[in-house]
Amino acid sequence: MIRGVLFDLDDTLYNSSEFVEIARREAVKSMIDAGLDISFEEAMNILNKIIQDKGSNYGKHFDDLVKAISGRYDPKIITTGIITYHNVKVALLRPYPHTIKTLIDLKARGLKLGVITDGLTIKQWEKLIRMGIHPFFDEVITSEEFGLGKPHLEFFKYGLKRMNLKPEETIYVGDRVDKDIKPAKDLGMTTVRILKGKYKEMEDNNYSDYTINSIQELVKIVDELMNKTKI
Length: 231
Hints:
The protein is of the alpha/beta class. It is built from 10 helices and 6 strands.
Protein backbone atom coordinates (compact mmCIF):
# COMPACT_ATOMS: atom_id res chain seq x y z
CA MET A 1 0.00 0.00 0.00
CA ILE A 2 1.47 3.33 -1.06
CA ARG A 3 1.38 5.81 1.84
CA GLY A 4 3.87 8.47 0.85
CA VAL A 5 5.93 10.18 -1.83
CA LEU A 6 9.46 11.51 -1.38
CA PHE A 7 10.72 14.12 -3.84
CA ASP A 8 14.12 15.37 -4.81
CA LEU A 9 14.04 19.17 -5.13
CA ASP A 10 16.43 20.60 -7.74
CA ASP A 11 15.39 19.82 -11.34
CA THR A 12 12.55 17.69 -9.99
CA LEU A 13 10.11 20.29 -8.66
CA TYR A 14 11.59 23.27 -10.50
CA ASN A 15 14.13 24.04 -13.25
CA SER A 16 17.28 24.42 -11.17
CA SER A 17 19.81 24.05 -13.99
CA GLU A 18 18.35 26.85 -16.09
CA PHE A 19 17.67 29.43 -13.42
CA VAL A 20 21.05 29.01 -11.68
CA GLU A 21 22.98 29.40 -14.93
CA ILE A 22 21.07 32.55 -15.89
CA ALA A 23 21.49 34.05 -12.41
CA ARG A 24 25.25 33.41 -12.39
CA ARG A 25 25.73 34.90 -15.84
CA GLU A 26 23.80 38.06 -14.96
CA ALA A 27 25.76 38.37 -11.72
CA VAL A 28 29.07 38.22 -13.58
CA LYS A 29 27.88 40.86 -16.07
CA SER A 30 26.94 43.18 -13.20
CA MET A 31 30.33 42.65 -11.53
CA ILE A 32 32.10 43.60 -14.76
CA ASP A 33 29.92 46.71 -15.03
CA ALA A 34 30.93 47.52 -11.43
CA GLY A 35 34.62 47.46 -12.32
CA LEU A 36 35.82 43.85 -12.50
CA ASP A 37 38.51 44.07 -15.18
CA ILE A 38 38.03 40.94 -17.28
CA SER A 39 36.01 39.72 -20.25
CA PHE A 40 32.72 37.98 -19.60
CA GLU A 41 33.88 34.68 -21.13
CA GLU A 42 37.06 34.59 -19.06
CA ALA A 43 35.17 35.42 -15.87
CA MET A 44 32.63 32.64 -16.49
CA ASN A 45 35.42 30.13 -17.08
CA ILE A 46 37.04 31.05 -13.77
CA LEU A 47 33.70 30.98 -11.92
CA ASN A 48 32.78 27.58 -13.33
CA LYS A 49 36.17 26.22 -12.22
CA ILE A 50 35.58 27.56 -8.71
CA ILE A 51 32.13 25.95 -8.62
CA GLN A 52 33.57 22.66 -9.87
CA ASP A 53 36.34 22.71 -7.23
CA LYS A 54 34.35 24.02 -4.24
CA GLY A 55 30.87 22.67 -5.01
CA SER A 56 27.58 24.45 -5.65
CA ASN A 57 26.84 24.90 -1.93
CA TYR A 58 30.06 26.80 -1.24
CA GLY A 59 29.13 30.25 0.02
CA LYS A 60 31.90 32.42 -1.42
CA HIS A 61 31.99 31.80 -5.17
CA PHE A 62 32.00 35.51 -5.98
CA ASP A 63 34.61 36.30 -3.31
CA ASP A 64 36.96 33.76 -4.86
CA LEU A 65 36.19 35.01 -8.37
CA VAL A 66 37.15 38.59 -7.50
CA LYS A 67 40.29 37.48 -5.66
CA ALA A 68 41.35 35.26 -8.58
CA ILE A 69 40.99 38.16 -11.02
CA SER A 70 42.09 41.22 -9.05
CA GLY A 71 44.14 39.62 -6.30
CA ARG A 72 42.26 41.41 -3.55
CA TYR A 73 38.99 41.55 -1.63
CA ASP A 74 36.58 44.06 -3.19
CA PRO A 75 33.31 44.23 -1.22
CA LYS A 76 31.59 46.54 -3.70
CA ILE A 77 32.03 44.20 -6.66
CA ILE A 78 31.29 41.07 -4.61
CA THR A 79 28.10 42.59 -3.18
CA THR A 80 27.00 43.69 -6.66
CA GLY A 81 27.28 40.10 -7.84
CA ILE A 82 25.44 38.69 -4.82
CA ILE A 83 22.55 41.14 -5.11
CA THR A 84 22.18 40.58 -8.85
CA TYR A 85 22.27 36.81 -8.39
CA HIS A 86 19.55 36.87 -5.76
CA ASN A 87 17.39 39.35 -7.66
CA VAL A 88 17.48 37.19 -10.79
CA LYS A 89 16.89 34.06 -8.71
CA VAL A 90 13.78 35.54 -7.11
CA ALA A 91 12.47 36.65 -10.50
CA LEU A 92 12.96 33.23 -12.12
CA LEU A 93 12.29 30.79 -9.27
CA ARG A 94 9.05 29.05 -10.17
CA PRO A 95 7.90 25.44 -9.84
CA TYR A 96 7.47 23.43 -13.00
CA PRO A 97 4.03 23.78 -14.60
CA HIS A 98 1.51 21.44 -12.93
CA THR A 99 3.66 20.99 -9.80
CA ILE A 100 1.19 22.68 -7.47
CA LYS A 101 -1.81 20.90 -8.98
CA THR A 102 0.01 17.58 -8.67
CA LEU A 103 0.86 18.18 -5.02
CA ILE A 104 -2.78 19.10 -4.33
CA ASP A 105 -3.95 15.89 -6.03
CA LEU A 106 -1.51 13.75 -4.07
CA LYS A 107 -2.53 15.32 -0.78
CA ALA A 108 -6.18 14.73 -1.68
CA ARG A 109 -5.36 11.01 -1.86
CA GLY A 110 -4.20 11.08 1.76
CA LEU A 111 -0.51 10.65 1.01
CA LYS A 112 2.39 11.89 3.10
CA LEU A 113 4.72 14.11 1.06
CA GLY A 114 8.34 14.87 1.78
CA VAL A 115 11.46 16.39 0.23
CA ILE A 116 14.88 14.77 0.58
CA THR A 117 17.59 16.93 -0.93
CA ASP A 118 21.30 17.62 -0.97
CA GLY A 119 22.10 21.16 0.04
CA LEU A 120 22.13 23.74 2.79
CA THR A 121 18.97 23.64 4.89
CA ILE A 122 18.23 27.38 4.76
CA LYS A 123 18.82 27.57 0.99
CA GLN A 124 16.55 24.61 0.25
CA TRP A 125 13.80 25.94 2.51
CA GLU A 126 14.14 29.35 0.84
CA LYS A 127 13.42 27.77 -2.55
CA LEU A 128 10.35 25.92 -1.28
CA ILE A 129 8.98 28.99 0.49
CA ARG A 130 9.61 31.36 -2.43
CA MET A 131 7.82 28.91 -4.76
CA GLY A 132 4.92 28.70 -2.31
CA ILE A 133 4.96 24.90 -2.14
CA HIS A 134 6.36 24.34 1.36
CA PRO A 135 2.94 23.78 3.04
CA PHE A 136 2.42 20.59 1.03
CA PHE A 137 5.34 18.76 2.65
CA ASP A 138 5.23 16.90 5.94
CA GLU A 139 9.02 16.80 6.16
CA VAL A 140 11.96 18.49 4.42
CA ILE A 141 15.19 16.55 4.93
CA THR A 142 18.56 17.98 3.88
CA SER A 143 22.06 16.55 3.65
CA GLU A 144 23.36 19.39 5.82
CA GLU A 145 21.17 18.45 8.77
CA PHE A 146 21.91 14.72 8.48
CA GLY A 147 25.63 15.05 7.79
CA LEU A 148 25.61 12.79 4.73
CA GLY A 149 23.95 13.26 1.37
CA LYS A 150 22.99 11.30 -1.70
CA PRO A 151 23.63 8.57 -2.72
CA HIS A 152 24.31 7.29 0.84
CA LEU A 153 21.62 4.80 1.77
CA GLU A 154 21.68 5.99 5.38
CA PHE A 155 20.45 9.39 4.24
CA PHE A 156 17.45 7.83 2.50
CA LYS A 157 16.78 5.59 5.52
CA TYR A 158 16.79 8.69 7.71
CA GLY A 159 14.26 10.32 5.40
CA LEU A 160 11.98 7.31 5.59
CA LYS A 161 12.27 7.28 9.37
CA ARG A 162 11.38 10.96 9.58
CA MET A 163 8.33 10.28 7.41
CA ASN A 164 7.41 7.12 9.37
CA LEU A 165 7.32 5.17 6.11
CA LYS A 166 8.61 1.81 4.98
CA PRO A 167 10.39 1.57 1.60
CA GLU A 168 7.65 -0.58 0.10
CA GLU A 169 5.09 2.09 1.07
CA THR A 170 7.01 4.88 -0.62
CA ILE A 171 7.40 6.35 -4.11
CA TYR A 172 10.62 8.26 -4.75
CA VAL A 173 10.72 10.92 -7.48
CA GLY A 174 14.00 12.38 -8.76
CA ASP A 175 15.94 13.38 -11.84
CA ARG A 176 19.35 11.73 -11.31
CA VAL A 177 19.86 8.00 -11.72
CA ASP A 178 23.07 7.81 -9.69
CA LYS A 179 22.07 9.95 -6.71
CA ASP A 180 18.28 9.61 -6.66
CA ILE A 181 16.89 6.58 -8.44
CA LYS A 182 19.51 3.88 -7.78
CA PRO A 183 19.74 4.30 -3.98
CA ALA A 184 15.95 4.55 -3.66
CA LYS A 185 15.58 1.40 -5.77
CA ASP A 186 18.23 -0.41 -3.71
CA LEU A 187 16.20 0.29 -0.57
CA GLY A 188 13.00 -1.06 -2.09
CA MET A 189 11.13 2.13 -2.91
CA THR A 190 9.10 2.49 -6.12
CA THR A 191 11.19 4.79 -8.29
CA VAL A 192 9.94 7.46 -10.68
CA ARG A 193 12.48 9.36 -12.76
CA ILE A 194 11.49 12.74 -14.15
CA LEU A 195 13.31 13.50 -17.39
CA LYS A 196 14.23 17.10 -16.62
CA GLY A 197 17.42 19.08 -16.15
CA LYS A 198 21.00 18.46 -17.16
CA TYR A 199 20.97 14.77 -16.17
CA LYS A 200 18.00 13.71 -18.28
CA GLU A 201 20.26 11.86 -20.76
CA MET A 202 22.00 9.83 -18.03
CA GLU A 203 21.94 6.07 -18.62
CA ASP A 204 19.15 4.48 -16.59
CA ASN A 205 20.25 0.82 -16.29
CA ASN A 206 16.65 -0.17 -15.45
CA TYR A 207 16.71 1.43 -12.00
CA SER A 208 13.57 3.44 -12.76
CA ASP A 209 10.24 1.69 -12.30
CA TYR A 210 8.63 4.56 -14.21
CA THR A 211 9.85 7.53 -16.24
CA ILE A 212 7.84 10.71 -16.73
CA ASN A 213 8.28 13.88 -18.77
CA SER A 214 5.99 16.01 -16.61
CA ILE A 215 5.28 15.82 -12.91
CA GLN A 216 1.53 15.62 -13.53
CA GLU A 217 2.06 12.07 -14.87
CA LEU A 218 2.86 11.04 -11.30
CA VAL A 219 -0.81 11.14 -10.28
CA LYS A 220 -1.74 8.39 -12.75
CA ILE A 221 1.10 6.21 -11.46
CA VAL A 222 -0.03 6.73 -7.87
CA ASP A 223 -3.61 5.82 -8.77
CA GLU A 224 -2.45 2.65 -10.54
CA LEU A 225 -0.38 1.54 -7.56
CA MET A 226 -3.07 2.37 -5.02
CA ASN A 227 -5.71 0.52 -7.05
CA LYS A 228 -3.50 -2.58 -7.29
CA THR A 229 -3.44 -2.89 -3.52
CA LYS A 230 -7.24 -2.80 -3.38
CA ILE A 231 -7.66 -5.82 -5.63
